[in-house]
Amino acid sequence: MLTSTLTLYRQVARATGRSLRCGWLNMAGIVVFALLFVGASRIAAPLGIAGGFLLGAVNALLVGATLRLIDLSLTASRSIHIRDVIESMGHYFWDVIGVGFVLWLPVMALDMTTQANPYGQFLSSAFLCLLFLLLNPAPEIIYQVRHDSPLDVFKTSYEFVLENWIEWFLPFVVLIVPVALSPSGLQEFLTLVSRLGRGAGLDFFQIVILPFTVIGGWVTYLGIAPEWHWLLMALLTPPVAMAILVFRGHLFALLHGSSRRQRMFRQQLNRTR
Q: What predicted TM-score, i.e. pTM, was given to this entire model?
C-alpha cells in the first residue's frame, strides 16, 4: 500500500509540473480574480442583504472561472492564453451557486440554533469539520464528474472520501503540519478547517487564504526572519494556490473510478514484469 501510494504521488507530482508549465498564466488570473473579489467585497459591504447576494454571485463567477482554468490545465495539451482566462468567466457558475445554496441552508440553521447553546461553538466546529471532510472533493467533482444536481455532487463526494480518504487527505496533513505545531496550532487549525467546511471549498476567499496560511506556517517553522514573512507570503500565495488546485485535480482524476486494491494490484503487477 505504501509503495502504490508513493507511486501515485509521483505520478501526480509529474503531471502537476507539466500543467504548471503550460498554465503559468493561471497564476496571474488568480491575482486578478482576487483583486476583483476584494473590490466586490467593498462594494457589497454597505448594501446589507443585497450586498450578500451580490458577493455570492461574484464568488460563484470567480470560483467557476478558476475551476475552468484548472480543468484546462489538467490536459496540458497546450499553453493557457489570456483568451482562456477571459472565456473562463461563466463556466460552472450555476453548479457553484447550486452547491452553495443547498449547503447554506443547514449552515444557517446551525448558526441560529447554536447561538444560545453553551456548547454551540464546539458543535458548530464539529459539524463544519465534518463538512470539510465529506465535501472536500466537491470542486473537483463539479468539473470532472457528470452530475445532474448538487445532491449528486454531495453523494459522489461522500463516496469518494470513504474510498480514498488516506490518499486524498495525506498531502493536506503534510501541508498543514507547521500550522498545527504552532503555539495556537489547534485553534488555528480548527478555524481554518471550519472556514473551508462552511464553503465546501467553493469560497474564493478560502481558495486564497489556505495557501496563505500554509505559507505563513512554513516560513515561521523554517525560522525565516519575520520582516520577510509578508513579502514571501504575498509572492508565493498565487503559485502555491495554483499548485494545490492542480495537484488536487490530478490526484482526483487518478483516484476516481479506481479502488485502493486495484492500484495495489497494478503496482504488484508492474514489479513482477
A: 0.85
